[in-house]
Amino acid sequence: MATTLPALESSAFAPHFTVAELAEIWKLDETTIRRIFQDEPGVLKIGKFNRRDGKRDYVTLRIPESVVSRVYEKRAA
C-alpha cells in the first residue's frame, strides 16, 4: 500500500498558472510576476538554474492556485 502526503497530492493536481496567465489576470508585467513568485514555497520550477557555465538560467514557473491565493492575501493586507 502506497502512502501519499495529502499536501503534495492536492498541490500536484490543483490548477497551476503560468507567469503570462497571472500577468494578464493581475495586469502586471511578466517580470514583476516572476520576481514575486520565484522564491515562494510551492512554486514548481522547471529548467536549468544555478548554471556554472556562465550562461543564463532558463526556468519555467508553474504557480499553484493555493500559492497565488496565499501571496494575494499577504500582499493585500
Topology of helices and strands:
Elements: H1 6-13, E1 16-17, H2 19-26, H3 30-37, E2 44-48, E3 58-64, H4 65-76
Antiparallel strand pairs: 1-3, 2-3
Task: Walk me through what this model shows.
With 77 residues, the chain is of the alpha+beta class. The protein has one domain (13-76). It has helices at residues 6-13, 19-26, 30-37, 65-76; strands at 16-17, 44-48, 58-64. It has a 3-stranded antiparallel beta sheet. It is globular and about 40 Å long. The N and C termini lie far apart (43 Å). The model has no long low-confidence stretch (mean pLDDT 87).
Helix-residue proportion: 40-55%
Class per helix and strand makeup: alpha+beta
Mean pLDDT: 87
Note the run of SSEs as H and E.
HEHHEEH
Oligomer: single chain
Shape: globular
Radius of gyration: 14 Å
> In DSSP terms, counting alpha (H) and pi (I) runs of 4 or more, how many helices?
4
Q: How many domain modules? A: 1
How much strand? 15-25%
Number of strands: 3
